[in-house]
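tool_call: predict_structure(chain=1)
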Amino acid sequence: MKKDNENPDYPLACSTWGDEELAAISRVVNSGLFSMGNEVCEFEKYFSSTMGCKYAVMVNSGSSANLLMIAALFFVKENALKRGDEVIVPAVSWSTTYFPLQQYGLKLKFVDVCEETLNYDLEQLSATVSESTKVIFAVNLLGNPNDFEEINRIIGESNITLLEDNCESMGASFQDRKTGTFGIMGSFSTFFSHHISTMEGGVIVTDDEELLHILLSLRAHGWTRDLPEANRICEKSSDGFFEPFRFILPGYNVRPLEISAAIGIEQLNKLHGFLNVRRENADRFKTLMQRHDRFSTQKEIGHSSWFGFAIICEDPIVRESLTSELKRFKIDFRPIVAGNFAKSEAIKYFDYEIAGELAVANKIHASGIMIGNHHFDLTEQLKLLDRSLTAF
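tool_result:
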């Protein structure tokens, strides 16, 4: 890590903005219209087209995207979730994969991850699925797709709902299909450190019209104002006085700003180029790591968008020594996402079970390091990494 007054030579995150984003901000400021409006609508159309799905709903963060996905499943007409239902989750992810599940009274069942992919251990996942399982929440970690062919085989003909937390994997694909679109809904983040940045921001994608309408209502107070006249969840009245203030669902206010959407449009224009450079950096990183066999790293499944680079050490003592070298070479680092979340202090508030042993999640928690990937050429930064690993 770095002290507040130090600038790393190899940072974890950096800005992806240019003149286009600043011009977009100026355009919105000059319009005087800041609340959710036309810019958000245009961004949503562009995003759904980019990801190859029917609908996109922009919100104020990827965390809110996960929250609304879980909430929406409680209000569908068929097979709605209820408190106490079982949701399978991977043991390694960010906190806001799990928090909405606790907040809606769901029971979590933690499954280990694979050391090579950092996604679900598919054998353990298969062994864990039961008649009690209502949802499999798949997390595409650090840009790496899950093996959705195998996950769908595990689900088979059951009534299990597949959701995706794709906040770290925008632009990744599996079998020529974008991640985030395999589940009935998928979440994305556009936070500063992610593939595109809109200050704060998130998106939910779906092909399901009923879920779209539920999400639109939940996003803004649970009211009917943002629903089309013909929708899947209510009949709208002609009462111009009360209809705009008619509340039908216990919703939130997680609306995005016009500025964020305007920035997002410019960032989406650059996404393809960003991804190409990230993948070129990943090729350099993989070549470098072949020279350092005391460490392992993530194996690509499908076509990763390489959010960051994982380094797994032999043991915690090795990690402690390596972090000293990374500090010396001014290389930023952090835990791999949040490590094993079942070890979090917040877990005492959850209803949960652990399926088998979380051996790999524990190893990642104790011995893992994540370093950054970026939208620009990291040749010089990776030379620093090579020197630090060699010095170690």
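agent: Residues 1-5 have pLDDT under 50 and may be disordered. Proceeding to next step.
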